[in-house]
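Field: sequence (string)
Field: structure_tokens (string)

Example rows 1 and 2, in order.
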Amino acid sequence: MNWVRAVAGIFVLWSSTAWGATLTWTSNSEQDLAGYRVYQCSQLPCTRTSGAASLLATLGTVTSFTVGMPEATQYYFITAYDSANNESGSSNLASFPPAGFPAPPSPNGLHITAVQ
């Protein structure tokens, strides 16, 4: 399995009037996929090795996760893991601003859409 490229990108669904934000991503096609891990940071750099990331959720093979409505800007990334617990490299970083702040630009194919 090419775990470095297992998770290509994530999307953030958001709105200043929404109930919260939902991360969505493209499913990994590897046969031994066991699930995904969602990481969250409140500052940059936001990587597993930066000391800023905390594991927010360990999921099965779903391709979305609701992160709620953060009160401060948060950063998120996703990894995939297989049945032997090998973890992929990180997805693109997505950020979510608190309500009332403008949405960040959408680099690297990330898309931002309202969630009600």
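Row 2 begins here:
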Amino acid sequence: MFAYGQILTCLIATKTPHRIVTAGKWKRSSGVPRDKDGARRMAQQLYPSVSQRLRRKKDEHRAEALLLAAYAEALG
């Protein structure tokens, strides 16, 4: 929680627009499959140019970061 507080403080101090959204909300809204490997498979399909960097099971967090960025971009 300490890192979260630091990031939030920096965003507020620099007047950077931001939204706080739960993982469940953005994943449901984006249609991310519920299974553990769903985000990785979806990111590989949406971003074929980087699919090679998402080939390992442990790349699921990298895939979620891509999908979360896409969600944020769609919000405007």
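free_text_note (row 2): The first helix runs from residue 2 to 13.
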